[in-house]
Amino acid sequence: MRAKAIAHGAITIVNAIPSGLGAAMGIDLWTEALVEFGEFGGIEVEIMDAVEEDKSLAEKVVKKVLKKAGLNRLGARVKTRSNIPIGKGLKSSSAAANAIALASVKALNLNLSPEETVLIGVEASIEAGVSITGAYDDSYTSFFGGINVTDNISRRVLRRFRAPDDLRVLIMVPEEKLYTKDVDVEALKGIQEVSKKAVAMALNGRFWEAMTINGLTVSAALKIDPRPIIEALRRGALAAGVSGTGPSIAAVLNENHLDEVRELFESYGRVLEAGVNNRTVEAFPV
After folding, report:
1. Is 139:125 a contact under the CB 8 Å cutoff?
2. Residue 52 has pLDDT above 70, yes or no
3. Which CATH architecture is the domain 1-286 placed in?
4. Containing H/E element for 126?
5. How far lies 181's CA from each of 46, 63, 112, 192, 216, in Å?
6. What are 225-266's pLDDT values in tens digits?
7. How far apart are CA 75 and CA 104, in angstroms?
């Protein structure tokens, strides 16, 4: 009983912590999970290239799938690999949870809907302490791709859009990590009204205005340097902002501005380039 699944990352359009409403856009960075069930005497997790990271999210996802299958006594081996930096605000936890959940469901031949599979990862994320709201916006976007505006409290999708395929995303990734569990939640609650206005923009298809407003207000609340955001806009980016709770800064742009914005971001940290993702998570037996 083995299966593999690949889920993608995302960037923030509107952070959901201030108001419970969020929006995100899929990008084509990825996480792959291989899950095997058998008489292994527990759940073994290997996070390739990041052995120091906490494995509790993966364990909780697998346990939830086994519980739904009524196979609690089975053991599992989980192996993940990814090109999404961990602890950088690029939805690495959501992508990992989705990939592990779907691979587990596929390996056990469970009849679960995609939405039910997403919720497994959302609930496991809260229990593992890697998410405050369950990050339904991030998890749904990682699973289904595109641009999604969600109510993270009621776990509802308010509106879905196809992301423009011809755009590129540049991400400035500082050396430091910032985990959601360490974020100043009260500081983010203080920008609730501005955040709601950004959500309203996103619901009306004004994604890039929403992303930039969110980015500037979140950077102010969390004391993140806003200069990369402002300078990226000056150099032709359609939008720029803090992804998640940082520390990464993402910019959405047309190809003809890539060199200018990349040069800027390289003066602050490592730079990743990605395309948008409109594809749903893929799973297959191995």
Report:
1. yes
2. no
3. 2-Layer Sandwich (3.30)
4. helix 114-128
5. 22, 22, 29, 19, 21
6. 999 999 999 999 999 999 988 889 999 999 999 999 999 999
7. 12
